[in-house]
Amino acid sequence: MVQYTEQFILLLFFTLKNGKHFIFITYLCSLIRSITIIIYMYRTNTCGELRMTNLNQEVILSGWVQKARKFGGMIFVDLRDRYGITQLVFNQDTNAELCNRAAKLGREWVIQVKGTVAERSNKNPNIPTGDIEIISSELAVLNPSETPPFTIEEDTDGGDDLRMKYRYLDLRRSVVRSNLELRHQMAFATRSYLNERQFMEVETPVLIGSTPEGARDFIVPSRMNPGEFYALPQSPQLFKQLLMVSGFDRYFQIVKCFRDEDLRADRQPEFTQIDCEMSFVEQEDILGIFEGLTKYLFKTIKNIDLPDFPRMSYADAMRLYGSDKPDTRFGMQFVEIKDLTAGKGFGVFDGAEYVGAICVEGAAAYTRKQLDELTDFVKRPQVGAKGLIYVRYDLDGALKSSVDKFYSVEDLQKWVERAGAKPGDLLLVLCGETEKTQKQLSELRLEMGARLGLRDKTKYNCLWVVDFPLLEYDEPLNRYFAKHHPFTSPKPEDIPLLETNPGAVRANAYDMVINGVEIGGGSIRIHNSELQKKMFSVLGFSDEQAQAQFGFLMNAFKYGAPPHGGIAFGLDRFVSIFAGLDSIRDCIAFPKNNSGRDVMIDAPSTVAQEQLDELNLKINPHETPVTNT
Amino acid sequence: MVQYTEQFILLLFFTLKNGKHFIFITYLCSLIRSITIIIYMYRTNTCGELRMTNLNQEVILSGWVQKARKFGGMIFVDLRDRYGITQLVFNQDTNAELCNRAAKLGREWVIQVKGTVAERSNKNPNIPTGDIEIISSELAVLNPSETPPFTIEEDTDGGDDLRMKYRYLDLRRSVVRSNLELRHQMAFATRSYLNERQFMEVETPVLIGSTPEGARDFIVPSRMNPGEFYALPQSPQLFKQLLMVSGFDRYFQIVKCFRDEDLRADRQPEFTQIDCEMSFVEQEDILGIFEGLTKYLFKTIKNIDLPDFPRMSYADAMRLYGSDKPDTRFGMQFVEIKDLTAGKGFGVFDGAEYVGAICVEGAAAYTRKQLDELTDFVKRPQVGAKGLIYVRYDLDGALKSSVDKFYSVEDLQKWVERAGAKPGDLLLVLCGETEKTQKQLSELRLEMGARLGLRDKTKYNCLWVVDFPLLEYDEPLNRYFAKHHPFTSPKPEDIPLLETNPGAVRANAYDMVINGVEIGGGSIRIHNSELQKKMFSVLGFSDEQAQAQFGFLMNAFKYGAPPHGGIAFGLDRFVSIFAGLDSIRDCIAFPKNNSGRDVMIDAPSTVAQEQLDELNLKINPHETPVTNT
Question: What topology is assigned to B462-563 in CATH?
Answer without folding.
Answer: BirA Bifunctional Protein; domain 2 (3.30.930)
